[in-house]
Design brief:
Structural class: alpha+beta
Order of helices and strands: HEEHEHEEEEH
Strand order of the largest sheet: 1-2-7-6
Number of strands: 7
């Protein structure tokens, strides 16, 4: 906010005039970083699959998961979801360097950088580039050094938030891996209960 770093705390010491040591939980931050970087890749993939009318309407990136709200007029089909996942995971495997630059706002917009509607930007902006031909966004958040560090990407749900706004929930890295393993374990349990048919759908 206005070039100031703001920290939120649950409690304050009785004497607030002393020195304060702020530390980052590196493991938690890394999970947040993966979910944030993959948000940029997914945003571009959605525009590629669904159309350039897609625009970010809100997002949340935590150490547990990520969600992304975007403008779209219909439910995403299973095929569209699969294509978005495929594109994002291809970009992850390409080990694309994540380049971060600060530049004048006008220069950034000339590069084709996407900005959030309604967001206030100063004269100088921070630009995050993941392949100049794929993803350029104005962003002030934490990011991986290259896309390969994200690991893997998996969409877990897609649904409506309001008229013309859809929401995707997804996972990256170790969280995505754990989710996939959980789903495979459920599938194996079902197969075991059905005496391991060769074709589960026909069994």
């Amino acid at each position: 906010e206005n070039d100031l770093f703001i920290h939120f705390v649950d409690t304050l010491p009785e004497d607030v005039s002393g020195d304060v040591l702020a530390t980052v939980n590196a493991s938690r931050r890394r999970k947040i970083t993966r979910h944030h970087s993959v948000t940029h890749l997914m945003h571009s993939a959605l525009r590629q699959v669904l159309g350039t009318h897609v625009a970010q309407k809100g997002s949340m990136c935590s150490d547990i998961s990520m969600r992304f709200d975007f403008s779209h007029f219909a439910k995403c089909s299973d095929e569209e979801i699969a294509m978005v996942e495929k594109i994002v995971n291809q970009k992850i495997r390409k080990n694309i360097p994540v380049i971060i630059k600060e530049m004048p706002k006008e220069e950034a917009m000339q590069t084709g950088a996407m900005a959030l509607f309604g967001e206030k930007y100063g004269d100088t902006v921070r630009v995050v580039i993941m392949d100049p031909a794929y993803s350029i966004e104005l962003c002030g958040g934490t990011h991986e050094g290259n896309t390969d560090e994200i690991g893997i990407f998996k969409i877990t749900s897609e649904g409506a938030v309001s008229a013309g706004v859809r929401r995707i929930e997804a996972l990256a890295g170790c969280k995505a891996e754990a989710y996939i393993n959980e789903q495979l374990a459920v599938l194996q349990t079902v197969k075991n209960q059905l005496k391991n048919p060769k074709d589960l759908l026909k069994g």
